[in-house]
């Protein structure tokens, strides 16, 4: 019998924090505690330097020029696409479309894949946990086509009712669109089961991976979904850059959803011949420095190790949950058994916006509001929550400062 593989060494969090210049500052005279990673994570020097190097040494438009800078930029841009392909284990770079972010990726599928394929009475199936970006595009598509939006319920823990999901699948279901991880509650959905159940009925699946990609490894071939969307700025990368993974045969059959440069092979007044994948869906000048920065972010995350990241974030989540639960009058909203590293909560007698303001005075940055997931928050009968979302560069000491600031907010309003 072979020896078991050695465990990966734990993270040296303090060393890693030194890679993030923004974390060194003070806010309102206090060292910054950044706990809004679910909205946007911070960038390491490796990403900042990659974007600066692009700007200083190779910036030019890609795919269009024969001069040296254009060739350098094109090589870097397409190398970034290959880096993404490898990171998510897609079969081909033809399945990797660069977009502005998760929202644009979902809208692309709604306009180019769904609308041409649905008729009045057809159905799109989502869940009660969705971000608005995975609700509104389907509502718009349904309004335009006469299709019907169906919603899978959740329970009081914030977990998806898988039996209800299965019963809602029907012969009229044309697409399942689900979040991988809830941005409002942290719930990790059983996406493999969702995909398997949908595919058993011949229904394609789109997954919103914006909150999943920073926390655990992705494998499109093993996951077997048809579309997967995520953003760079939640993966320690630049904003304004995102990815749509799509199964090649589906992308190939879809019409472009925007027209312009680089998505064409030839144009005449009598008609246009579209470019091959993935360029067919990348009209106009792309976010070239963003793609380079995204590749650098992926390199950085891979070097740290997603397994080690996940292990440390689980430790932070457990510690934060234990400490926050002990605060009198505090209720955690979303207690799923499988959660990503965020905690949403309410405090008796204190509006979440007031919590956020008081915490900011203590240098602690959290998110307050409905988190662009109003149905999920309203399900629990509250108008808003306070949300602390953790990254691998956060520490137990920062959790302690969060708890102290929340306790001070409670005492202030008593």
What would your notes on this structure say?
- By secondary structure, the protein is an alpha/beta fold.
- The protein folds into two domains: 13-41 and 306-412, Aspartate Aminotransferase, domain 1 (Alpha-Beta Complex), CATH 3.90.1150.10; 48-302, Aspartate Aminotransferase, domain 2, CATH 3.40.640.10.
- It has 14 helices and 17 strands.
- The protein has helices spanning 13-17, 45-57, 68-88, 102-114, 136-145, 162-168, 191-200, 220-223, 248-253, 288-304, 306-325, 352-361, 374-379, 396-412, and strands spanning 26-27, 30-31, 33-34, 96-99, 123-127, 148-152, 173-179, 205-208, 227-231, 242-246, 264-268, 271-274, 330-333, 342-347, 364-365, 367-369, 385-389.
- The strands form five sheets. Strands 4-10-9-8-7-5-6 form a seven-stranded mixed beta sheet, with helices on both faces. It has a four-stranded antiparallel beta sheet with strand order 13-14-17-16, covered by helices on one side.
- A hairpin with a 2-residue loop joins β11 (264-268) and β12.
- α2 packs antiparallel against α10 (288-304).
- The model is unreliable at 1-6 (pLDDT under 50).
Cα radius of gyration in angstroms: 22 Å
User: What is the percent of helical residues?
Assistant: 25-40%
Instruction: Please count the beta strands (DSSP E, at least 2 residues each).
Output: 17
CATH architectural category of the largest domain: 3-Layer(aba) Sandwich
Mean pLDDT: 95
How far apart are the termini? Answer: 62 Å
Q: How are the strands ordered across the major sheet?
A: 4-10-9-8-7-5-6
* Main sheet summary: 7 strands, mixed
Shape by Cα distribution: globular
Task: Please name the fourth-level CATH homologous superfamily of the largest domain.
Answer: Type I PLP-dependent aspartate aminotransferase-like (Major domain)
Say what the CATH topology of the largest domain is. Answer: Aspartate Aminotransferase, domain 2
Number of domains: 2
Which class best fits the helix and strand makeup?
A: alpha/beta
Strand fraction: 15-25%
Tally of helical runs: 14
Regions with little confidence, pLDDT below 50 for 5+ residues: 1-6
> What is the CATH C level class of the largest domain, in words?
Alpha Beta
């Amino acid at each position: 019998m072979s020896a078991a593989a050695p465990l990966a060494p734990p993270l040296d969090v303090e060393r890693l924090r030194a890679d993030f210049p923004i974390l060194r500052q003070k806010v309102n005279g206090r060292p910054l505690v950044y706990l809004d990673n679910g909205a946007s994570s911070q960038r390491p020097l490796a990403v900042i330097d990659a974007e600066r190097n692009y700007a200083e040494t190779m910036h030019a438009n890609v795919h269009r020029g024969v001069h040296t800078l254009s060739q350098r930029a094109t090589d870097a841009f397409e190398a970034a696409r290959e880096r993404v392909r490898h990171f998510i284990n897609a079969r081909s770079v033809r399945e990797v479309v660069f977009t502005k972010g998760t929202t644009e990726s979902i809208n692309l599928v709604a306009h180019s894949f769904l609308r041409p394929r649905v008729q009045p009475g057809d159905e799109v199936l989502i869940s009660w946990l969705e971000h608005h970006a995975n609700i509104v595009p389907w509502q718009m598509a349904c309004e335009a086509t006469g299709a019907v939006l169906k919603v899978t319920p959740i329970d009081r823990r914030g977990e998806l009712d898988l039996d209800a999901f299965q019963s809602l699948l029907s012969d009229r279901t044309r697409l399942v669109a689900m979040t991988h991880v809830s941005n409002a509650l942290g719930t990790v959905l059983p996406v493999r089961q969702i995909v398997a159940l949908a595919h058993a009925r011949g229904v394609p699946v789109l997954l919103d991976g914006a909150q999943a990609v920073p926390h655990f490894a992705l494998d499109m071939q093993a996951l077997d979904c048809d579309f997967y969307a995520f953003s760079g700025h939640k993966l320690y990368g630049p904003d304004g850059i995102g990815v749509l993974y799509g199964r090649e045969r589906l992308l190939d059959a879809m019409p472009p959803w925007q027209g312009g440069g680089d998505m064409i092979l030839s144009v005449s007044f009598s008609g246009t011949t579209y470019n091959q994948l993935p360029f067919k869906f990348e009209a106009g000048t792309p976010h070239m420095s963003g793609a380079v920065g995204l590749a650098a972010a992926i390199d950085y995350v891979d070097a740290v190790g997603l397994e080690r990241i996940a292990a440390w974030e689980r430790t932070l989540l457990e510690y934060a949950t234990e400490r926050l639960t002990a605060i009198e009058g505090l209720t955690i909203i979303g207690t799923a058994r499988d959660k990503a590293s965020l905690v949403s909560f309410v405090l008796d007698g204190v509006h979440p916006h007031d919590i956020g303001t008081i915490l900011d005075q203590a240098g602690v940055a959290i998110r307050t509001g409905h988190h662009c997931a109003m149905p999920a928050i309203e399900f629990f009968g509250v108008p808003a929550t306070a949300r602390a979302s953790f990254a691998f560069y956060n520490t137990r000491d920062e959790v302690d400062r969060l708890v102290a600031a929340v306790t001070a907010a409670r005492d202030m309003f008593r």
